Amino acid sequence: MVVRERFEQELKEIQAQFVEIASSSINALKIAFSALLEQDLEKSLKILEDDLIINRLEEEINDRVILMIAKQQPVATDLRRLMVLVKAASDMERVGDYAVNIAKETIRLGKEPLIFPTTNLQTMCNKTVEMLDSIIKAFTEEDTVSAKEIAELDDYVDDLYGATVTLLLRAGADNPAHIHQITHLTFVCRYLERSADHATNIAEHLFYLVKGKHYELNN
Amino acid sequence: MVIDFKEEKSVVKTIHTGAKPSIDVAKKVVYDTRNLNLWYGDHHGLKDVNLSIYENEVTAIIGPSGCGKSTYLKTLNRMVELVPIVRTSGEILYRERNILDKNYTVEELRTHVGMVFQKPNPFPKSIYDNIAYGPRIHGIKNKKILDEIVEKSLRGAAIWDEVKDRLNQNAYGLSGGQQQRICIARCLAIEPDVILMDEPTSALDPISTLKVEELVQELKKDYSIIIVTHNMQQAARISDRTAFFLSGEVIEYDKTDVIFQTPADQRTEDYISGRFG
């Protein structure tokens, strides 16, 4: 059997780039959130700067996949593998954008002391990062069983988001002088919830890769 | 690890299931091959082939060299009988009549089934005479009728505009791509029901290949086309269904969209992905 060595080699390299963009974005999310808690503006500014690297990585993945399709004309699983890499890379680039958004909220908040307890937000961030870390592992190992379990965790993040937003709105009503801060934290809450959604998206891409059909894992 | 979704419908909802299954009851069957076996002497060339070819579709036959795809094509117009050591068993029903039945004459069969070969093979005659050759054999002598057939056939093969002013010139003077379209026009002149194409573009340049591919798409409105091709992208581009042959067997036969996206058999996937062949 003739193995398409060049194709396999190129694919491995693109997969490695995907792992790189994934870990950079997850790391950015973690740092952006810790910078929020520490109200560290320098760290937040660095997130904005580093996002350019993440964006460039996504463009590189897209360009390499387009070249692969043009040169190697893959079909069936090979083609799906390339397509889901593009989509998953786009999901992770988006997570990087949410890290940037959180960093911008931190900058807007400045050094004003946080009046709202951040426990829920911290739990949301931990769960989102855990989901993203696990989905990247499941994606690279093409493990659909784990992917489905990870997608199910999104309900937890969604519930926490709903509860936290309710608390924030109540806090806003009770503390009209701090409505500015409450609004920024509500946005942060939203960015974390959306980041977790991208873990579900990647789980769905994996199912498409393995099964060749579209599945909705978390309705 | 892969989940068996049959048991997990409550958890995972399928929102799109891809192409429809291969058996198409709404379509008319042109050829129905049943348990066809073919031997070249001791060599078992085709093994239990079961295949339904549908009307007004392009059916592609793919597979590595020596897999039996050209042999199968040549059984459909009984050209394979030219090889003296060939034996067959089973049935090939063309419009519900078994063409392997000795009462079915080759002459009759070939009025319904035309063929285009790998290398363009026009006769060493004028363009006009190439096209008029078949109708003349079938007894048409009226110049006006022959003129009409020649024009209609050349238009059908998308070459009329290129040759209408030089119909009396020798067909050998045309380019390879034009010669192949002349051969297609010659095939159309007998108004066949089915056109068999054996790697019709393998000797053509990319532009001529594209023209023939476009032509095939046009022709399927009026004819049923079966094409053997080594070019998998061509099969993916122009066919409605694809059969994958390997060592004389049909490994998989389905809608082309399914074959090139989610083939059921690993051997099909390996072949179309270029992992052997």
Strand and helix map with partners:
The complex is a heterodimer of chains A (219) and B (277).
Chain A: H1 5-38, H2 41-72, H3 76-109, H4 119-141, H5 144-152, H6 154-174, H7 179-211, E1 214-216
Chain B: E1 13-16, E2 29-40, E3 43-54, E4 58-62, H1 69-75, E5 86-94, E6 97-98, H2 106-112, E7 113-116, H3 127-137, H4 143-156, H5 160-163, H6 176-188, E8 194-198, H7 206-219, E9 224-228, H8 232-238, E10 241-246, E11 249-255, H9 256-261, H10 266-272
Parallel strand pairs in B: 4-9, 4-10, 7-8, 8-9
Antiparallel strand pairs in B: 2-3, 2-5, 5-6, 10-11
Helix pairs in contact in B: 3-4, 3-6, 4-6, 6-7
Number of helices of chain B: 10
Percent strand of chain A: under 5%
The stretches of 5 or more residues of chain B where confidence is low (pLDDT under 50) are 1-21
CATH superfamily of chain A: Phosphate transport system protein phou homolog 2, domain 2
**CATH superfamily assignment of the domain at 29-121 and 193-272 in chain B?**
P-loop containing nucleotide triphosphate hydrolases
Q: What topology, given as strand order, has the largest sheet of chain B?
A: 7-8-9-4-10-11
Summed up, the domain count of chain A is 1
Largest sheet of chain B: 6 strands, mixed
Low-confidence stretches of chain A: none
The biggest beta sheet of chain A is recorded as: none
Report on this structure:
By secondary structure, chain A is mainly alpha-helical. Helices cover 85% and strands 1% of the residues of chain A. Chain A has a single domain, classed as Methane Monooxygenase Hydroxylase, Chain G, domain 1 (Up-down Bundle), CATH 1.20.58. Chain B has a domain at 29-121 and 193-272: Rossmann fold. Chain B has ten helices and eleven strands. Chain B has helices spanning 69-75, 106-112, 127-137, 143-156, 160-163, 176-188, 206-219, 232-238, 256-261, 266-272; strands at residues 13-16, 29-40, 43-54, 58-62, 86-94, 97-98, 113-116, 194-198, 224-228, 241-246, 249-255. Chain B is globular, with a radius of gyration of 20 Å. At the A-B interface, helix 3, helix 5, helix 7 and strand 1 of A face strand 1, helix 8 and helix 10 of B. Strand 1 (214-216) of chain A pairs antiparallel with strand 1 of chain B.
